[in-house]
Amino acid sequence: MMLSVRRTSRGTVNRWDVDPDAQDQIIGEHAWLNDESASHSRRDQLSGGWTIYAPKRDERPNEFIPHSGLQSPVYRQGEIQLGCPFCAGSEGQTPEAVWTGRLGDLCAVPTDQGADRFARPLVNACFGEQPDWDVRVVPNKFPAVTSIEGAEVRSHEPSTDELFPSAPVVGGHEVIIESSGHAENMASFDPALVYLTLVAYRERIKHWASVDGIRYISVFKNCGPEAGASLHHSHSQLIATSLLPQAARVTMARCEAHRARVGSSLGCDLLRAECEQKSRVIAKKDSFVAYCPFASRFPGMIRVTSMSHQPRFETFDDPTLDRLASMLTRVIYWVDQAFPGKAYNYLLHTCPPASSQPDAFQWWLDIFPRLNKAAGFEWSSDCMINSMLPEVAAANYRRIARRDDPRRVLAFG
């Protein structure tokens, strides 16, 4: 992702050469394609969904695939490793940081009663570089969307072509480096480092939400090659776009319709119903709940959200993020224990800037191991087949959580 290397056909898909005359014709039809680094989107009129085309994305390196016969690098966990572009000391291999955070001493003021720690760590943060950083945020060297720098930000208005609508996509694509020393899985992290990562999410979401023309912000983590990671060092990503994806549009519409009909948030109502049934709830602590949703799309999926109504993750204060970090640390540990060595993704959902009715939305975070692959039926129907009932998954996770600390399992009240 961050090194300038050219991949070969060894395990990868090559970009095809284009006839110069044909390329001139393509560029003439769509002026923004004149810039090879520019991204654009095209709409499928049958499904209504948009696809983003990012010409430079397939040039990012992949440490999980040997290059020119070389073996994938071997790194020592927890140590700063020469050659790893995300370890401290390799800052020159990435673009300049837009945000860095450093952990300090514990606060003198205790957190709320019942929290896992009596005091949270102080954070020294700045917009830019700083020495001895613990978490660092940099622009992605191979972005999925055209950088907003020097680009005209406007709403994602498609071309007037009735059957082939397209539009340029601008925004930002950032990498959140979650540790200055080499680490490949958050399961080994101290909750303080997870807390600082969540602070980075909050600050970068707030930044992009304030930018005119940004309609959607996605924060996600790919851990392991099957989950889409291309580098070993633990990191997550943020993509802010002028495009509001179809799935987000549908979710917002359903949430708004529910609120108009019953006067409450759909996400909150679902959580209350899950807590009443209890069969899919794993644990509740510090106002956060971890459970396996009734209609989980993926086997072993866990959803984390708050008991209190909160549309936007980025409005959480420091004590709340500290408590969420404790919960998220445990959730990742449960997944790692239940499915050792399996890749996983997590996806943070916060109310999109495009929403005109944010109170209808409730934030949540989904984490799921990559246990199977989508096949023909899933791709043709957009209907997932899940071989693991969420009630079974929740029972297994509760068993692991009870072994870890029985006080944290189903602690209702």
What can you tell me about this protein's structure?
This protein is α+β, with helices and mostly antiparallel strands. It is 24% helix and 20% strand. The protein contains seven helices and 15 strands. Strands 3, 4, 5, 6, 8, 9, 10, 11, 12, 13, 14 and 15 form a twelve-stranded mixed β-sheet that branches. Strand 1 (40-43) and strand 2 form a beta hairpin. Helix 2 packs across helix 5 (318-338) and helix 5 (318-338) packs across helix 7 (390-404). The radius of gyration is 22 Å and the shape is globular. It starts with 19 loop residues before the first helix and ends in a 9-residue tail after the last helix. The model is unreliable at 1-20 and 22-29 (pLDDT under 50).
Keyphrases for this structure?
single chain; 413 residues; alpha+beta; 12-stranded mixed sheet; 3-stranded antiparallel sheet; 20% strand
Order of helices and strands: HEEEEEEEEHEEHHEEEHEEHH
Contiguous low-pLDDT stretches (5 residues minimum) are 1-20, 22-29
Query: Which structural class best describes the helix and strand composition?
Result: alpha+beta
Mass-distribution shape: globular
Q: What's the total helix number?
A: 7
Question: How much is the radius of gyration in Å?
Answer: 22 Å
Largest sheet: 12 strands, mixed
Query: Helix coverage percent of residues?
Result: 10-25%
**First-residue to last-residue Cα separation:** 46 Å
Strand content: 15-25%
Q: What's the pLDDT, averaged over the residues?
A: 83
Number of strands: 15
